[in-house]
Design a protein that fits this description.
Helix content: over 70%
Number of strands: 0
Order of helices and strands: HH
Structural class: mainly alpha
Number of domains: 1
Radius of gyration: 17 Å
Shape: elongated
Length: 79
């Protein structure tokens, strides 16, 4: 089967800023919720840094999912 369109790597590179931003927001809000039970409140800088780190695997997984959907769509179009 011939794969048409963008590669998983290219999709991940394009979507990484959005994935890292989403993860940073999630980390920041999770820290705020954990502060209710005595956890530390993270600064926005730390939340962004942690979001950039955990945004990599999250974005890669999402890019693989999108690539899979593209492959399924191409296979259905070929039928």
């Amino acid at each position: 089967m011939n794969r048409h369109g963008w590669s998983t790597r290219r999709i991940a590179l394009v979507l990484y800023p959005f994935g890292a931003g989403a993860m940073a927001v999630n980390v920041f809000f999770a820290a705020l919720i954990l502060s209710w039970v005595g956890g530390p409140i993270l600064s926005t800088g730390w939340a962004i840094a942690i979001g950039c780190v955990i945004g990599l695997p999250a974005t890669w997984a999402f890019a693989r999912h999108i690539r899979h959907l593209m492959d399924v769509s191409d296979a259905q179009a070929a039928d």
